[in-house]
Design goal:
Elements lengths: L2 H26 L7 E16 L5 E9 L5 E6 L2 H6 L2 H4 L5 E6 L5 E2 L2 E2 L2 E6 L2 E5 L3 H24 L14
Parallel strand pairs: 3-6
Antiparallel strand pairs: 1-2, 1-4, 2-3, 4-7, 5-6, 7-8
Helix pairs in contact: 1-4
């Protein structure tokens, strides 16, 4: 493998790691003014899951709303957390709620898992904790900076072919 190709690949992966960290920190520091507010009636709610490419399941509490074709959801790490969270029992079918969606979450397969906050009559029913996103963002930024430093300090592209000769 050539030296230039190794450097390009390294820079690419370090940049991706850094950008993932920045995105997580941006998601953790979202302001209420940056959220999309949807006021709509809940027609149905259920616990669902999506399967990753590796076969790992991610659970969510999804809501079908009256005036939106796309379902919106709250994400959970495990099935137990999804069923034990009070949001499942606090949001009632037939009532109108204010849902605050994070713009950085994409909609895929008719589902948007970007609910940040839910309100009913100006009373907060659900609020997402951003600690995991903040710590994950810090981790990825530090990882990219650390790997960048290590690769610059101990990288194979340094001139290792210089041989010191003894002048005897």
């Amino acid at each position: 493998m050539s030296k230039t190709f190794r450097i390009i690949v390294l820079v690419f992966f370090l940049l991706i790691s850094f950008l993932v960290g920045v995105l997580n920190i941006l998601r953790a520091n979202v302001k209420s003014s940056d959220l999309v507010i949807i006021q709509d009636k809940v027609l149905d709610k259920k616990i669902g899951y999506t399967t990753s490419l590796k076969g790992r399941r991610s659970y969510h509490l999804e809501f079908k709303l009256e005036n939106r074709p796309v379902k919106i959801a709250v994400s959970y790490d495990s099935k137990n957390k999804a069923y034990s969270d009070s949001t499942l029992y606090l949001v009632d079918i037939g009532k109108t709620y204010n849902f605050y969606l994070d713009k950085t979450f994409p909609t895929s397969n008719g589902l948007n898992c970007g609910i940040d906050k839910i309100e009913y009559n100006n009373v907060e029913v659900f609020s997402k904790s951003h600690k995991l996103e903040l710590y994950g963002g810090i981790f990825f930024i530090l990882l990219s900076l650390g790997l960048g430093f290590v690769s610059i300090k101990f990288g194979k592209w340094k001139n290792i072919n210089t041989i010191k000769y003894d002048k005897t």
